[in-house]
Write a structure and sequence with these properties.
By secondary structure, the protein is of the alpha+beta class. It contains three helices and eleven strands. The protein has helices at residues 3-20, 122-134, 159-169, and strands at 29-34, 37-42, 49-55, 58-60, 70-76, 81-88, 98-103, 106-113, 116-118, 137-143, 149-155. The longest helix is centred in the N-terminal third of the chain and has 18 residues, at 3-20.
Length: 171
Protein backbone atom coordinates (compact mmCIF):
# COMPACT_ATOMS: atom_id res chain seq x y z
CA UNK A 1 0.00 0.00 0.00
CA UNK A 2 1.28 3.45 -0.77
CA UNK A 3 1.55 6.21 1.80
CA UNK A 4 -1.13 8.09 -0.18
CA UNK A 5 -3.56 5.23 0.35
CA UNK A 6 -2.60 5.02 4.03
CA UNK A 7 -3.36 8.72 4.43
CA UNK A 8 -6.81 8.21 2.91
CA UNK A 9 -7.56 5.45 5.38
CA UNK A 10 -6.45 7.61 8.29
CA UNK A 11 -8.78 10.31 6.96
CA UNK A 12 -11.63 7.80 6.82
CA UNK A 13 -10.96 6.65 10.35
CA UNK A 14 -11.15 10.22 11.56
CA UNK A 15 -14.36 10.81 9.65
CA UNK A 16 -15.89 7.68 11.12
CA UNK A 17 -14.92 8.57 14.67
CA UNK A 18 -16.18 12.12 14.20
CA UNK A 19 -19.46 10.80 12.79
CA UNK A 20 -19.79 8.22 15.54
CA UNK A 21 -19.62 10.89 18.22
CA UNK A 22 -21.65 13.43 16.26
CA UNK A 23 -18.92 16.00 15.58
CA UNK A 24 -18.90 18.39 12.63
CA UNK A 25 -20.99 18.86 9.53
CA UNK A 26 -18.46 17.00 7.39
CA UNK A 27 -18.92 13.73 9.26
CA UNK A 28 -19.58 10.57 7.31
CA UNK A 29 -23.19 9.65 6.58
CA UNK A 30 -24.47 6.28 7.78
CA UNK A 31 -25.95 4.52 4.75
CA UNK A 32 -27.01 1.28 6.35
CA UNK A 33 -26.16 -1.82 8.31
CA UNK A 34 -25.49 -5.35 7.11
CA UNK A 35 -25.46 -7.70 10.12
CA UNK A 36 -22.35 -6.65 12.12
CA UNK A 37 -21.07 -4.13 9.54
CA UNK A 38 -22.05 -0.48 9.06
CA UNK A 39 -21.71 1.40 5.76
CA UNK A 40 -20.72 5.08 5.60
CA UNK A 41 -20.20 7.67 2.85
CA UNK A 42 -18.39 10.97 2.93
CA UNK A 43 -18.74 13.46 0.10
CA UNK A 44 -20.82 13.35 -3.06
CA UNK A 45 -20.45 12.32 -6.68
CA UNK A 46 -16.90 11.77 -7.90
CA UNK A 47 -15.52 13.04 -4.60
CA UNK A 48 -17.28 10.47 -2.44
CA UNK A 49 -15.52 7.88 -0.31
CA UNK A 50 -17.30 4.96 1.30
CA UNK A 51 -16.34 2.44 3.91
CA UNK A 52 -17.67 -0.55 5.76
CA UNK A 53 -16.67 -0.88 9.40
CA UNK A 54 -17.14 -3.33 12.23
CA UNK A 55 -16.09 -3.23 15.86
CA UNK A 56 -14.24 -6.07 17.57
CA UNK A 57 -16.65 -8.42 19.34
CA UNK A 58 -13.86 -9.57 21.68
CA UNK A 59 -11.07 -7.22 22.77
CA UNK A 60 -7.95 -8.21 24.68
CA UNK A 61 -6.87 -6.12 26.45
CA UNK A 62 -10.11 -4.20 26.84
CA UNK A 63 -10.54 -0.75 28.34
CA UNK A 64 -7.79 1.44 29.66
CA UNK A 65 -6.50 4.05 27.24
CA UNK A 66 -7.08 1.82 24.26
CA UNK A 67 -9.48 2.97 21.55
CA UNK A 68 -12.08 0.47 20.39
CA UNK A 69 -10.57 -1.72 17.63
CA UNK A 70 -12.26 -1.69 14.19
CA UNK A 71 -11.81 -3.21 10.74
CA UNK A 72 -12.39 -0.92 7.75
CA UNK A 73 -12.96 -1.78 4.11
CA UNK A 74 -12.67 1.39 2.06
CA UNK A 75 -13.72 2.42 -1.46
CA UNK A 76 -12.56 5.67 -3.01
CA UNK A 77 -13.25 5.38 -6.75
CA UNK A 78 -11.52 8.65 -7.70
CA UNK A 79 -8.24 7.20 -6.39
CA UNK A 80 -8.91 3.76 -7.89
CA UNK A 81 -9.52 2.12 -4.51
CA UNK A 82 -12.34 -0.43 -4.53
CA UNK A 83 -11.96 -2.48 -1.33
CA UNK A 84 -8.94 -1.68 0.81
CA UNK A 85 -8.70 -3.39 4.20
CA UNK A 86 -7.26 -1.73 7.28
CA UNK A 87 -7.40 -2.40 11.01
CA UNK A 88 -7.51 0.20 13.75
CA UNK A 89 -5.92 -1.71 16.63
CA UNK A 90 -6.58 1.13 19.04
CA UNK A 91 -3.15 1.60 20.58
CA UNK A 92 0.36 2.31 19.35
CA UNK A 93 1.91 -0.77 17.78
CA UNK A 94 5.51 -1.87 18.05
CA UNK A 95 7.31 -0.52 14.98
CA UNK A 96 8.42 -3.08 12.43
CA UNK A 97 6.34 -5.94 13.75
CA UNK A 98 3.91 -7.86 11.61
CA UNK A 99 0.28 -8.09 12.61
CA UNK A 100 -1.11 -11.63 12.52
CA UNK A 101 -4.56 -12.11 11.05
CA UNK A 102 -6.46 -15.37 10.91
CA UNK A 103 -9.76 -15.99 9.13
CA UNK A 104 -11.17 -19.42 9.95
CA UNK A 105 -7.70 -21.03 9.92
CA UNK A 106 -6.23 -19.10 6.98
CA UNK A 107 -3.36 -16.83 8.07
CA UNK A 108 -2.23 -13.45 6.81
CA UNK A 109 0.35 -10.87 7.86
CA UNK A 110 -0.22 -7.12 7.85
CA UNK A 111 2.23 -4.31 8.55
CA UNK A 112 1.82 -1.73 11.29
CA UNK A 113 1.74 2.04 10.99
CA UNK A 114 1.09 3.79 14.30
CA UNK A 115 -2.08 2.24 15.73
CA UNK A 116 -3.21 0.75 12.42
CA UNK A 117 -2.44 -2.28 10.28
CA UNK A 118 -2.56 -2.64 6.50
CA UNK A 119 -2.10 -5.34 3.88
CA UNK A 120 1.17 -4.71 2.06
CA UNK A 121 0.37 -6.38 -1.26
CA UNK A 122 -2.71 -6.00 -3.47
CA UNK A 123 -2.85 -9.72 -4.32
CA UNK A 124 -2.69 -10.62 -0.63
CA UNK A 125 -5.40 -8.05 0.04
CA UNK A 126 -7.67 -9.77 -2.50
CA UNK A 127 -6.94 -13.12 -0.85
CA UNK A 128 -7.80 -11.69 2.59
CA UNK A 129 -11.00 -10.10 1.28
CA UNK A 130 -12.09 -13.41 -0.26
CA UNK A 131 -11.33 -15.24 3.00
CA UNK A 132 -13.37 -12.65 4.89
CA UNK A 133 -16.32 -13.15 2.53
CA UNK A 134 -16.22 -16.91 3.12
CA UNK A 135 -15.34 -16.76 6.81
CA UNK A 136 -17.25 -16.46 10.05
CA UNK A 137 -14.70 -14.66 12.21
CA UNK A 138 -11.39 -12.86 11.97
CA UNK A 139 -8.74 -12.68 14.70
CA UNK A 140 -6.13 -9.92 14.76
CA UNK A 141 -3.08 -10.34 17.00
CA UNK A 142 -0.47 -7.62 17.47
CA UNK A 143 2.23 -6.38 19.82
CA UNK A 144 1.79 -2.96 21.39
CA UNK A 145 4.56 -0.41 21.52
CA UNK A 146 4.78 -1.19 25.24
CA UNK A 147 5.44 -4.87 24.43
CA UNK A 148 2.00 -6.15 25.46
CA UNK A 149 0.11 -8.53 23.15
CA UNK A 150 -3.34 -7.71 21.78
CA UNK A 151 -5.87 -10.15 20.40
CA UNK A 152 -9.19 -9.04 18.92
CA UNK A 153 -11.94 -11.08 17.31
CA UNK A 154 -14.35 -9.72 14.70
CA UNK A 155 -17.57 -11.11 13.28
CA UNK A 156 -17.61 -11.37 9.50
CA UNK A 157 -21.39 -11.67 9.37
CA UNK A 158 -22.58 -9.22 6.71
CA UNK A 159 -19.17 -8.41 5.23
CA UNK A 160 -20.09 -9.61 1.71
CA UNK A 161 -23.20 -7.41 1.60
CA UNK A 162 -21.19 -4.54 3.10
CA UNK A 163 -18.52 -4.73 0.38
CA UNK A 164 -21.23 -4.87 -2.29
CA UNK A 165 -22.90 -1.82 -0.72
CA UNK A 166 -19.76 0.32 -0.68
CA UNK A 167 -19.13 -0.63 -4.31
CA UNK A 168 -22.67 0.37 -5.30
CA UNK A 169 -22.80 3.56 -3.21
CA UNK A 170 -19.38 4.83 -4.32
CA UNK A 171 -19.30 3.95 -8.02
Amino acid sequence: MTRHRSAMIVTFGGLFLAGAIGVGASAAELLGTHADWKIYRHGTGGESMCFAVTEASEKNPAGGERQTPHIYITAWPKAGIRAEISVLVGLALKAGTEIKVEVDGTRFELFSDGDRAYVGDSNEELRLLEAMRRGKSMTVSAMSEAGKPTRDVYSLSGVTAAVQAIAADCS
